[in-house]
Design brief:
- The complex is a heterodimer of chains A (about 775) and B (about 325).
- Chain A has 17 helices and 33 strands.
- Chain A has about 775 residues and is of the alpha/beta class.
- Chain A has 5 domains: about 5-90 and about 760-784, no CATH class; about 100-265 and about 720-750, Rossmann fold (3-Layer(aba) Sandwich); about 270-365, Immunoglobulins (Immunoglobulin-like, Sandwich); about 375-610, 3-Layer(aba) Sandwich (Rossmann fold); about 620-710, Immunoglobulins (Immunoglobulin-like).
- In chain A, helix 2 (about 40-80) runs antiparallel to helix 17 (about 760-784), helix 3 (about 120-130) packs antiparallel against helix 5 (about 165-175) and helix 6 runs parallel beside helix 9 (about 240-250).
- The longest helix of chain A is centred in the first third of the chain and has 37 residues, at about 40-80.
- With about 325 residues, chain B is of the alpha/beta class.
- In chain B, strands 7-6-5-8-9-12 form a 6-stranded mixed β-sheet, sandwiched between helices.
- In chain B, helix 8 (about 220-235) links the parallel strand 8 (about 210-215) and strand 9.
- Classes of the chains: A alpha/beta (about 775), B alpha/beta (about 325).
- The interface of A and B includes residues 39, 46 and 779 of A.
- Strand 2 (about 35-40) of chain A pairs parallel with strand 10 of chain B.
Chain lengths: ~775, ~325
């Protein structure tokens, strides 16, 4: 048995094999304890003895052998022998194996430590696992290429590969590193479901680089990213709870877990990666300088000096090179790129790390910048002009929106145009990007409907308060009937003269972080000047609208008891509405003329850019995001061209006023919008995607839209688990095995549990006992 | 049946002795009487006469059919009728006077010469219970001699082992019983025997046709035995074979590992008796069948005596059956 088996789990018990001699000893003792008897009828006895001696000897020998065998087999079973694959008895010990092989194809598997991408190593490991299976003996396998979010097309491929060795191998050889991240909790859950119809022999193999992010999920990784360092957001217990739950479910279902580490030797491989390539949320116009920022982080353990090159459109050579910076381990550096775009339309800008490193996946990022003509702003002035220009309601707004005027090279992104209140009814709002109602009386119902349609189609509306505005009427018409305003007006409080010390002066307080007030949040002096320097004598007391489709955001508050909103924002359809609850001129506040800093200019600039810039950025998406495009006019069918060249025709769906799908006809009516939506089939490729109109003459708008898809930066954190840390932080007592890459084809048979013989030995012992009982009973029956 | 005066004392002594069979000995004739002869039992058998099935020669007329004619018929005595008696001999006159059945017995009948032949070889000493085959055979022989003498027939005795070492000539005198029993009580155990040869020898020596009562375990080749018996039959002897066997020999009841050591130096066998039982009993059965068939063929009366069976019961059943056959 020792030659056939590769060992015993409890070899110490083999000493009990001496018990097998007990039947022999009993037999010998019985023969020795002979009764002597003088016998007369020896003739018959001798004859009977002669005839039966051979049969009796054989029967005795048979019983003896069966008893000895039964004891020996039981003792051997207790010692738990197991076989190795080379044993002639390996087939005997073979329990059908049902193997789920999770192959990590997340972006980190593209890391090249000098011996080729990690995925090649993973592929070889998976091939060895599959080679160790015996389909003829009932073994089955399912290959689960895993990356998150899951790709339904890949899930189908994995299901098709089930049980078919040829297709498994073909699927394996076709695996490629994806641009996605990983979520191993989902992978283990998928594996468990794939194996749940089998009751025994379930084995789950994870072939992965054991990147930490994969165990905690990309969401946790992003939280850490936002918190600014690994481990800052979640404790290990909380971060890995999801994967631990999945592992426990798999183990409870009877599966054994095997972790095949194909990662690089270092636990924290050297990597410098572009983690972000962004632009401020501002309108970019032709020939005006725009700034773009590339952020580079050093994920390794050694300081690295890198530069970033910027390419515009299809440039062969870089349009700009940011100077090299030395980034310490764990540190981050910002590389800025200033550029004036010469043409309207979306432009793809590429940031490339120099030099490239071992993980090229994060050495390049894309940014699509929509270049527009100057945004026309319609300033509707409600107050009559005074003796001085600055006494008009729109004066300070005009100055803030177009501070450079017509002189010089610098041009504001906004081209404001002031009209009197009574001219609003005749204005073509579609020609404007932003409409400002400055201290206006409440518009008529028709005008209100026109404004609502303008906003729903993507326009921006800013309402500033003043003596001409009636709170009651505004509440009834703008807040209740159309739901345009972000607040419900109540009444005007305070005294107009904010300089009279006898009256209370109200101060502004910064609210939640918001792109429009970003400079004030970023600079403490600005924040102080805004909160302490600005005095408000009178304002509209209001409360934020509740139960709005999109939550109301309060950017600034007054310091009154109710903390009434001073500047609030609400989204309506594809557009935005903002309300300033005091005057944009100097009747009720010194905000436009405060001398500490250009506060008013910065605030109006922020508001105007925010009203114009779409949020979230529709031009720059992340791998795994759904594609969602909303149009105020019927866009016609469009073909989505992916970076790989694959195309797909999209049909627009008409949305009702509430945003619900309402049919695909072209005549939408007022307030209607259309959308393209790719939800199930998400954006899985990085690169520039194009939406091309099928019939350019039948639909308005540009013939081609661009948007960029970039990989999730959490994948750049290549830090991975060592086996000990994996046990301590993730598995925490959940049993798992770590087979060596070289011995994978023998796994399952070589392992003690895979090749154990004990049950066969017990069955053999039972068979011996049963045979002994039957033989003894037959012999006994013959003797009586 | 004058021997009603058989001694009573020994019977009582016998009862006393039976209470402790382990101390029993056959050293003296009295002991033999005391130990085994239950005279009350024998008295119960006294009306079961031992008759020769064939025509035999005797010293005088008796109840046996005689080959000799012309003797006068003289009434001798009455005896009470017992079932099995020939009703022709019932004395109806006595019945008319006493209302009881008596049969008349006549002096004219010739007497019987009976030769009791007992095997005293070593195999006869085997016993699994209280009594060995030899003891049982001796007692049975003594009982029959007693009965024969009581019916005024002549009884002789032959003891044999490897040869006939004791031959007592037949006599009718009641005192002859003592001599017979004395010889039976002190047999000479012989290590070997050859029953066939013995029977041939007896056939040659016993000139007058008579009744041969053979007591033996017959552990010999059946053909040789039967050949000897046929020789006796050829000499016109009426032969009765009392085949004496121990109950253990008939059932082989042993359970434990046993070394069977052959009496009469016939080797030894060590075996588990349970595994041998069926084959042994088959062999025994085959042997007994052969023996019975041979006896039947030669008109030899065969009777198996089991030493575990009470002697009285064995003799009563046999004699009653034989008497029934006579009629």
């Amino acid at each position: 048995m020792g030659m056939l088996a590769s060992g015993f789990l409890s070899p110490g018990l083999l000493g009990w094999l001496a018990l097998a001699a007990v039947p022999v000893v009993i037999h010998l003792l019985t023969r020795r304890r002979v009764v002597r008897l003088a016998w007369a009828a020896m003739k018959f006895l001798e004859r009977a003895h002669r005839k039966t001696r051979r049969r009796i000897q054989l029967e005795n020998l048979l019983l003896l052998v069966l008893r000895v065998l039964a004891i020996a087999l039981l003792v051997a079973a207790a010692a738990r022998p197991f076989l190795q694959a080379t044993s002639p008895l390996a087939e005997l010990a073979h329990t059908p194996r049902h193997v789920a092989v999770i192959v990590d194809v997340s972006a980190s598997m593209g890391y090249d430590d000098g011996t080729g991408p990690l995925l090649d190593r993973a592929r070889r490991g998976a091939e060895k696992i599959l080679a160790g299976l015996k389909p003829a003996a009932g073994d089955t396998a399912v290959l689960i290429p895993h990356a998150a979010p899951a790709d339904p097309r890949e899930d189908g491929a994995a299901a098709a590969a089930y049980l078919d060795p040829e297709r498994l191998r073909a699927t394996l050889s076709g695996l490629a590193v994806t641009d996605r991240t990983s979520n191993l909790a989902d992978a283990f859950e998928t594996a468990r479901r794939a194996l749940e119809r089998h009751r025994t022999g379930q084995e789950i193999y994870l072939v992965s680089d054991l990147q930490k992010v994969g165990f905690g999920g990309a969401a946790a990784g992003r939280e850490e990213e936002e918190e600014g360092g690994a481990g800052a957001a979640l404790s290990p217990a909380g971060r890995y709870q999801g994967v631990r739950d999945a592992l426990q479910r798999a183990v409870a279902a009877g599966a054994t877990l095997h972790v095949v580490d194909v990662g690089p030797e270092a636990v924290r491989p050297e990597n410098v990666g572009l983690v972000a390539f962004t632009r401020p949320p501002r309108v970019v116009t032709v020939a005006q300088p725009a700034v773009m920022e590339a952020r580079v982080r050093n994920f390794g353990t050694e300081p690295r000096e890198v530069a970033v090159q910027f390419y515009v459109d299809h440039d062969a050579s870089p349009r700009g090179v940011a100077r090299p910076q030395r980034i310490p381990p764990g540190g981050e550096a910002s590389f800025l790129f200033f550029h004036a775009f010469q043409h309207e339309g979306p432009v793809a800008v590429r940031a490339v790390l120099k030099p490239l490193d071992s993980f090229t996946h994060d050495d390049e990022r894309l940014l699509v910048v929509p270049v527009e003509p100057r945004v026309k702003v319609l300033l509707v002035e409600g107050s009559s002009r005074g003796t001085e220009a600055f006494e008009s309601a729109a004066f300070f707004l005009l100055q803030a929106l177009d501070p450079f005027g017509a002189d010089g090279d610098l041009k504001s992104a906004f081209a404001p145009e002031a009209i009197a209140w009574h001219e609003l009814a005749r204005a073509d709002l579609a020609a404007y990007g932003i409409v400002v109602l400055a201290d206006c009386p409440v518009p008529s119902e028709t005008e209100t409907a026109t404004l609502a349609a303008f906003v729903a189609a993507g326009g921006g509306l800013l309402v500033t308060w003043g003596p001409n505005t009636d709170p009651e009427l505004a509440r009834e018409r703008l807040a209740s009937a159309t739901g345009l305003l972000p607040v419900v007006p109540e009444r005007v409080v305070g005294q107009p003269d904010y300089t009279d010390p006898r009256h209370r002066q109200y101060r502004l307080r910064l609210g939640a972080r918001h792109p429009a007030t970003r400079p004030f949040h970023a600079d403490a002096d600005l924040e102080t000047w805004l909160e302490d320097g600005v005095a408000v004598g009178r304002f509209l007391r209001s409360v934020p609208v509740r139960n709005a489709a999109e939550p109301v955001r309060v950017l600034l508050e007054f310091d009154d008891e109710e903390r009434s909103p001073a500047l609030a924002e609400r989204r309506v359809g594809a557009g935005k509405v903002m309300l300033l609850a005091t005057t944009a001129h100097t009747r009720w506040t010194n905000l436009p003329v405060d001398r500490q800093a250009p506060l008013f200019l910065m605030l109006v600039d922020g508001i105007a850019n925010h009203l114009r810039v779409a949020e979230p950025d529709p031009f720059n998406l992340r791998v795994g995001d759904p594609l969602l495009r909303i149009y105020s006019a019927f866009p016609g069918k469009r073909e989505l061209k992916r970076p790989s060249g694959a195309g797909e025709v999209l049909t627009p769906v008409r949305l009702g006023a509430g945003g619900e799908a309402a049919g695909g006809d072209e005549d939408g009516g007022p307030g209607a919008s259309w959308r393209f939506l790719l939800r199930k089939d998400r954006l899985m490729e990085r690169g520039v995607h194009r939406l091309i109109r099928e019939a350019p003459r039948l639909a308005p708008g540009p013939a081609e839209e661009l948007f960029a898809v970039n990989p999730d930066p959490v994948e750049s954190a290549l830090e991975r688990f060592g086996i000990a840390d994996l046990q301590a932080d993730v598995f925490q007592g959940i049993p798992f095995e770590v087979p060596a890459l070289d011995g994978l084809e023998k796994a399952g048979v070589e392992g003690p549990r895979g090749g154990e013989l004990w049950k066969y030995l017990v069955l053999g012992a039972l068979a011996c006992l049963v045979a002994e009982m039957i033989a003894a009973q037959r012999i006994g029956a013959r003797q009586t | 049946m004058r021997s009603d005066a058989a001694p009573q004392g020994p019977r009582e002594s016998g009862r006393r002795k039976r209470q402790d069979p382990t101390t029993r000995t056959l050293a003296t004739l009295d002991d033999a009487y005391a130990a085994y002869l239950d005279f009350s039992a024998l008295n119960r058998l006294r009306y079961l006469e031992i008759k020769a099935r064939d025509i035999v020669e005797g010293y005088m007329a008796g109840m046996h059919r005689s080959p000799y004619r012309g003797f006068s018929v003289e009434f001798a005595e009455h005896r009470e009728y017992v079932p099995g008696d020939d009703v022709r001999h019932v004395d109806w006159k006595v019945f008319g006077r006493t209302d009881r059945h008596y049969i008349k017995q006549y002096e004219e009948e010739t007497n019987l010469i009976a030769h009791v032949v007992v095997d005293t070889s070593e195999s006869m000493t085997f016993k699994s219970g209280r009594v060995s085959k030899l003891e049982y055979a001796g007692l049975a022989a003594a009982s029959l001699v007693y009965l024969i003498l009581r019916q005024r027939d002549a009884a002789g005795l032959a003891l044999f082992g490897s040869d006939v070492y004791q031959l007592v000539q037949p006599r009718t005198h009641p005192g002859h019983f003592k001599l017979v029993v004395g010889n039976l009580a002190m047999p000479r155990v012989e290590p070997r025997t050859d029953i066939g040869a013995i029977l041939h020898h007896l056939a040659e020596r016993l000139k007058r046709r008579g009744l041969i009562l053979l007591f033996s375990d017959l552990l010999d080749e059946p053909t040789r035995i039967l050949h000897g018996l046929s020789h006796l039959r050829h000499r016109h002897h009426d032969v009765i074979v009392f085949h004496v066997l121990d109950p253990a020999e008939r059932t082989f009841p042993y359970e434990r590992m046993t070394r069977f050591e052959g009496l009469e130096a016939t080797g030894q066998v060590t075996a588990d008796p349970r595994s041998l039982r069926r084959a042994y009993l088959a062999e025994l059965d085959r042997y007994l069948r052969a023996l019975k068939r041979g006896c039947l063929a030669h008109r030899v009366d065969y009777r198996l005596l089991d030493t575990g069976e009470p002697l009285e019961v064995a003799l009563r059943s046999y004699l009653a059956a034989r008497a029934g056959e006579e009629r």
